[in-house]
Write a structure and sequence with these properties.
457 residues, mainly alpha, Amino acid/polyamine transporter I, 18 helices
Length: 457
């Protein structure tokens, strides 16, 4: 029987606190703009069904494996992985998996804070009336002026980073636990209120058709690969966050059932966000749905600015986006903070200031990518685009793949069985099957697709 370690960082107050924390980590900016557009462009309901299938066959099994390692080690991802390798008599190079995830998380945090700063800025842009009656060209100019001003970007990046430090410095119970117990209910209440607004004031039927019209002709093999990738990335797998949160998970909580609930809430947020966004977009003539910043910061402001009461709703929407980004970002900071406390025996306040300061300084490169350094390229990419590519297309798939292989083939069976106790034998067998054979193949396909798209397409 495996010996369960006692964590030095504390534990979540309950299983539901872990669920809210893990959901908060998973729900982020990608839910708000990428999933809805990709779904609507790839067959609507057909894509959604494939995506949900990929969540069950790829996302959930790997997420369970990551939580399992974290709960077994009860430490930061780096040290949990180190101990899991030692206890399983595995080759020492497996220890690097923990480092890859935590490093990816810190790199992502550096540019994520910059993007989240845009959402914070737009709360006040909408509330001030600046967006009232704007055209597409005007909205584009407003967004362009924000990106062209390094001082404004740094200001909002700094505010967002301070918000993250303010939570993580409180620790598991008084910081992270309290934050998610407040932020996640607020997020879901705001989602439902905005959904009600979009139903009565937007073009809800057009949004529904865009997302759920079952058109198999538009679902290509390329779309299936995109569904795999979205299912993998949407659950925050491979960046250390879920492993760190798993370290604080109550031992009596069933990993499989808990992660299924997290996956359900994450998918629900993505679908509701899509209905909200496209109901508003399709209610405004002359606006086409588009992916990325163009949708969030140009098309939507035009739609909000042309609706009665739209500016108030627009402010609420950007508050919602900021909350989603905040709950994700704190999960990126915590793994490295936990490791620094363990490795250097320093206070949580010191660890937070050091690491948040590092992420903030690195984030300046992303800030300048949109203005002063826009002509400076790394392998043909700006500094921001390079970090995005490095983390999303290389580090995260590699980390997730190695976690699946380690738990599926390398980790001692007794440790796996101990953490998965309470799971029905047939479910456990199905989980092992998908973890060992389905998930590695699918993640490898996503990895290859990302490399091909960037350099060969």
């Amino acid at each position: 029987m495996a010996i369960q370690q006692k964590g030095m960082h504390g534990a979540w107050a309950s299983r539901w606190t872990f669920i809210m924390a893990a959901t908060g980590s998973a729900v982020g900016l990608g839910n708000m703009w990428k999933f809805p557009y990709v779904a609507g462009s790839n067959g609507g309901g057909a894509f959604v069904l494939v995506y949900l299938g990929c969540i069950l066959l790829i996302g959930v099994p790997v997420m369970m494996a990551e939580v399992l390692i974290g709960r077994q080690g009860r430490q930061s991802p780096i040290n949990s992985m180190r101990d899991a390798v030692a206890e399983s008599d595995a080759k020492s190079r497996w220890r690097h998996v923990g480092w890859v995830g935590v490093a990816a998380g810190m790199l992502i945090l550096s540019f994520y804070a910059v993007i989240a700063g845009w959402a914070l800025a737009y709360i006040f842009e909408a509330a001030s009336g600046e967006l009232a009656g704007v055209s597409g060209d005007t909205a584009g100019a407003i967004f362009g002026s924000l990106l062209a001003d390094p001082s404004r970007l740094i200001f909002w990046q700094s505010i967002f980073m301070l918000l993250c430090v303010g939570v993580v410095v409180g620790g598991v119970k008084k910081g992270l636990g309290v934050a998610v117990e407040i932020l996640m209910p607020v997020l879901f209440v705001m989602l439902l209120l905005l959904l009600g607004f979009s139903f009565f004031r937007g073009n809800f039927s057009a949004a529904w058709d865009f997302l759920f019209n079952f058109n198999l002709q538009l679902l290509t093999w390329r779309g299936v690969l995109e569904a795999m990738g979205q299912a993998f990335f949407t659950l925050s797998i491979g960046m250390g966050a879920i492993m760190a949160y798993g370290a604080y998970m109550p031992q009596k909580a069933n990993i499989g059932k808990t992660i299924l609930i997290v996956a359900f809430f994450d998918s629900l947020v993505a679908i509701i966000s899509g209905l909200i966004i496209f109901s508003i977009v399709f209610a405004t003539q002359g606006i086409e749905p588009s992916a990325g910043p163009g949708l969030m910061f140009i098309s939507l402001p035009v739609a909000f600015g042309g609706m009665p009461g739209g500016l108030l709703i627009g402010s609420a929407f950007f508050v919602l986006v900021s909350i989603a980004a905040w709950s994700s970002a704190i999960s990126l900071l915590e793994p490295c903070v936990a490791w620094l406390i363990e490795a250097k025996d320093i206070s949580r306040v010191q660890a937070n200031l050091l690491l948040a300061g590092f992420a903030w300084v690195l984030g300046l490169g992303s800030v300048l990518s949109f203005n002063v350094w826009s002509d400076i390229k790394f392998a043909g990419l700006t500094f921001f685009d390079f970090l995005d590519f490095l983390t999303a297309n290389i580090m995260l798939p590699l980390s997730g793949l190695l976690i699946a292989v380690f738990v599926g083939y390398v980790m001692k069976r007794e440790f796996v069985d101990y953490q998965m106790q309470g799971t029905a034998p047939k479910i456990l067998a199905l989980w092992r099957l998908t973890l060992r054979y389905v998930a590695p193949v699918a993640i490898s396909a996503v990895f290859v697709m990302g490399i091909y798209d960037k350099f060969f397409s």
